[in-house]
Amino acid sequence: MQSQESGVHYSRWDSSSRDEISMTAMSSTEEASCSPRLSQKLCSGKLGIAMKVLGGVALFWIIFILGYVTGYYVHKCK
């Protein structure tokens, strides 16, 4: 069984009227090491530029097709 890595810790100071609440959420080491490497590889360099260009072109065509279909039905002769 794994230990619980996230939680809320509450402590009240006796000498002061301030309360301290700290929240910690830690992910597993596997997730923490994989995500930066993956984002570094996909978002920078030549591959990153290619991904951004392909994403922009795909977004353009999706918006174009939605606009075309919407315009067709809006301006359709009865």
TrEMBL record:
InterPro entries per the UniProt record, alphabetical: SMIM1
Region (Disordered): 1-30
Protein name: Small integral membrane protein 1
Ranges of Basic and acidic residues composition bias in the record: 11-21
Coiled-coil segments: none
Residues annotated as transmembrane: 49-74
Gene Ontology CC annotations of this record: cell surface; plasma membrane
Single GO MF annotation: protein homodimerization activity
Keywords linked to the UniProt accession: Membrane, Transmembrane, Transmembrane helix
Any Pfam family the entry gives: DUF4731
